[in-house]
Amino acid sequence: MRTNLSPTNRPAGRASTWRYTLQGVASLLWVVQAWWLAGALAALLAYAQGAAQDVTTGEQARAALVAAPWAELWYAAGVVVLAGVLRAALEYAGARATYGWARAQLTALRQAFAARLRATSPLDARRPSSGQLASAWVEQAEAVVPWLARYRAAQWRVMVVAPVVLVCVAMHTWVAALLLALAAPLIPLFMALVGWRAQAISERQMLVLGHLHGHLLERLRGLPTLRALHAVDSAAARLTQLGETVARQTMRVLRVAMLSSAVLELFSALGVALVAVYVGFHLLGQLPFGAWGERMSLHQGLFVLMLAPSFFEPLRELSAVWHDRANGLAAQRTLAHLLQGLTPLVQADEADDADQATGAGDMPPAQGLGADEAQALEGQAPSVALCGVMPTMQTQAEPSTQAAPVQEPAAMSAVNAAQATRQPWHIDIPAGAHVALTGPSGSGKSTLLALVAGLVQPQQGQVGIGGVPLHSGTVARLRRAIGWLGQPPHFLAGSLERNLYLGRDIPASPVQARAALRDAGLAALADRMAEVRLGEGGSGISGGEALRLALARLAVAESTRLLLLDEPTAHLDAATAAQVRASVARLAQGKTLLVATHDPELAASLPYELNLDAQGQAQWLRRPAQPEALPAEMPQGGQEAQP
């Protein structure tokens, strides 16, 4: 089965049929047990009735007890016990296999969700909050397992076991079969009416629950700010209100689930009662019709009575897990729709991923971006070119009736410059240039960095790094030469070493790691690297140390040849900003550097300055440091960066 995020009511294919078949065969073994039990009871009752008429003394009673059909009874008991053992074994094997398969499908669904999440730009302001994503990925996705393991198994038994039982009943009496057949359609009809309502309520519940998780995570992250503003009480009141909303939605789901169970119990009890009344009066001779030929025997009548409840048993099981279907469909629909409409990033294809892992593969030649060699793949500082590039980042989420997601702090407002960009960008940055991107907030500085890093796909035009076009076939290998520092940098709860490497496979020794920390101005941390522990969000170190640690992340990767820094000195005091500027200067030696900044001192310290105005128009400002090294003019057409 191919797993995707599309909402569907048929997630189980041929791969799961044999698992459901085991449980179905286990249920059908009750037919065998019922037949032998009915036969043994009929024989015992018939013998008891005859013996009661002949026995008058105790000695006759003992003789009648010895003459009882014990052999037949023991044989029937053996068959019933063996069938019961086999039934339990098949039920256990089928349930275990189905549960394992359902967990595997959940893993595949989560992997597909994670792959789609990785394919979206982390800078999109419409991206759901971390709390919503975590709630959907961890908690809500779990509803898929009961849906596949219980509901789908019960649904299969309804489609297979119930018809077989109905046929077995019809072989002995068509009246009882007709009564069961008339009662059966009413159950799925009313359950479907109730189920539609249950699914809508479940979807609403998951939406409210995800919003609660996102809201809680944001308030926990901003707890110091809430305390400083004396807003803890109001935040707690809002969380209480959201919690009460979740509780009300949960009770609505439970109320609908109880209603569906009541509907099933009503009609199943009615059907079993009508069959019991008919069989009883038929055996008494009051209703002599309905059997094939003469009246049914006691054996047949008991057999039909035992099968009547088992006809409704699959429907009863389906009703008990009916809410699992609603929850499973709601979870799958939530996972499918949560990431719709987000801005995609340039994603590596499978062939490029394989080449990246093995180090094999040849780069395609540059097309329309110059004929220079691919410096990014040769360990040299690469050039950067944007030819007719128009970003695709949108500023606002599309109108929706759902609750608005809580925005992430990392969703920077500057990425919304796509709306302000009226003309395509034609920008050529020479290899090894150190460029300051300046301009007002919202002019497109962060968007330009995101385009170069492949974190945003351009609506039109092409981005090139070192003469190599940036697309799905080259992005994985080009990114090995790119170092990105966004705002604010993210830190994990753990050791300093963990936050330095971030799980990357970097061939750096502890000596190189300490050297990277010292170059970033963190000599004190480098000496006790194994002892320093960071909390969530980088707690335990100052803001300036956090920025320099983020710079050390770039320095520890020797393959980095292109540095993209977004506001590295923002929100720092003068002394700390000077240290960060010195660290940037050391780190950028022999590399191409692009820095988006509002810091005039940092901009003045770089030989190039590219200014983006409020309309997103790019213009080169000549710098006294290297006036002769300004990029050559681009060909006419569109908007180019002018000196």
TrEMBL record:
Record bears the keyword Transmembrane helix: yes
Domain of life of the organism encoding this protein: Bacteria
Name of the featured protein: Thiol reductant ABC exporter subunit CydD
Predominant location: membrane
Subcellular location: Cell membrane
One record GO biological process: cysteine transport
Sequence ranges assigned to domain ABC transmembrane type-1 in this UniProt record: 25-327
CDD domains named in the record: ABC_6TM_AarD_CydD
Keywords carried by this UniProt record: ATP-binding, Cell membrane, Membrane, Nucleotide-binding, Transmembrane, Transmembrane helix
Topology versus the membrane: Multi-pass membrane protein
Cellular component aspect of the GO annotation: plasma membrane
ABC transporter domain sequence ranges: 406-640
Gene: cydD
Positions of the UniProt region annotated as Disordered: 621-643
Membrane spanning residue stretches: 20-48, 73-90, 156-172, 178-196, 256-278
Recorded GO MF terms: ABC-type transporter activity; ATP binding; ATP hydrolysis activity; ATPase-coupled lipid transmembrane transporter activity
